[in-house]
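User: Hi! Is it possible to get a structure for several chains at once, not just one? Here's what I have:
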Amino acid sequence: MDKSFLEQVQIHKKNKLDGLHSKTKMIVLILYVICTFILAVKVTRLQLPLYQIAWFGVLLVIFALSGQFAKCLRGMRAVFVVFAVIVIAQSLIQPGGEILFKLGPITIEEHGLQKACNLGFMVLDVAGIFVWFFQTTSHKEIAAALREAGVNDKIAYVFVSTLKMIDEMGKNSRTIMNAQRARGIETEGNLMVRAKAFVPSLIPLVLTAITGAEERVVTLEARGFSVNAQKTSVFKLEKSGAETLVLIVSLLITVALAAWRIFLA
Amino acid sequence: MSTIMECKNVTYQYPLTDKPTLKNINIKIEKGKVYGVVGENGAGKTTFCAVLRGFAPSFYQGELQGEVELEGKNIVEYGGDISTRIGYVFQNPFTQISGVKDTVYEEVCYGLENFGVPVDEIDRRVREVMKLTNIESLAMQNPFEISGGQMQRVALASVIVLEPDVLVIDEPTSQLDPEGTESVFEVIKAMKEKHKTIVLVEHKIDLIAEYADEVIVFKDGEIVAHGPTEDILSDMSLLKKGVNLPQVAVLCSKLKEKGLPLEKIAVTDKEAVRVIEKALKERG
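Assistant: Yes, the chains can be modeled jointly so their relative placement is included. Here is the combined structure:
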């Protein structure tokens, strides 16, 4: 209780990469995605996207250098699930080419593996950098960056409140699920049972969100959302000091990769 | 005392309805007074608040006749800046959170940020108001993860911090337990001491009896009675108009009927004890 509230709501990050200005992070994200596409080259006899796989290693290095390795990996869990589903489904379903592996009814063919790896690593890389962005950037920082960039207040509000509302709606949906269970709707069991429980849970969730929206508008108006004034902010967005360096490095990498792809590969 | 707000022949009809919700409302709101608004459900109390604040018709649409004035100027002319003059708090604490802030402290700051107040001043004012509303201990908590009573105090704090001249408060305690209700009224009392003009809709009539200077009674969209709190709440004929009078007032009236010479019909517990004691002593 030594620090003032004003001090407590600020975000100070020691790590230079973690503490990058949100705008710089966004540029890094875009460049990383561009590079992912540049690296979509198929190599080896099996035509696998080995460069994209290596590029994922770069992502892990970014996680680690940001000092948020564990947090980012936690955020990656859902991405890994999607990745696994894509790889398994694609490699099993897609026919064609040489048979690479056979065990009873399960066969993996060449084209299947190619498709699986291409799609899988593309998703892993692109989703991964987004995970890094959102795990190392709080809503508050995004909001402040949007305001600095001169984005319209209404758009900025919608963007930030959507991010926050996702958590809130998750909580609401659990409450509604419990209420519906109390009324005898089965919400646990096999896929069919869960699917049936979906509609009676979803409708109240959406309806409360809609009715709540009207009152939220009134709330915002009462707080002076549409006052004609240059808004101020209690939260000050900081720079880590490494912005220029990071920008130059990521631009250099992108240009180098693009040149390599155009002239050599 | 000077008039701060005035409704002149106000009739208001919501869209898609066939009759007006408010009919011929004429009232002068005087500076520094607390107005208790009572009446049955559907009598037009909430609509009255919305009209005072200008949400009807600007936000709810519908048709408004007559004029609502703040310091002699139609509230429409204030535009978005009306929020600097009239504070508005309503029933549901859960939807009165801006939804873009991580902590209660920042939530309370939100309005002042919108007004473009310098950060140092925001910090000073917010700390002051948080102390007043007793939410300092919640400062670093997520505004969505506190109790309903606490949320309502946060909502009140977020509006009070804007230092509006008029506070319109619509059933602030209808979703709260007795403890939450008490804490909200502590804040209203503090505002009253600061000589803010307050228009308060509240069903808990004992609280109206205690805090309001004047009472406005609504029935079917019309003002059927208006006057000093004691006069209105001791008027037994209002029971027939669907107004819930304080139990002590009903008791006093019955005792008087039975021949106990009460000097007046008390409307608050404290007053009732005093008058009844006095009457009993006189009788010996």
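The longest helix of chain B spans residues 178-193. Chain B touches chain A through 46 residues (CB under 8 Å).

User: Great, thank you!
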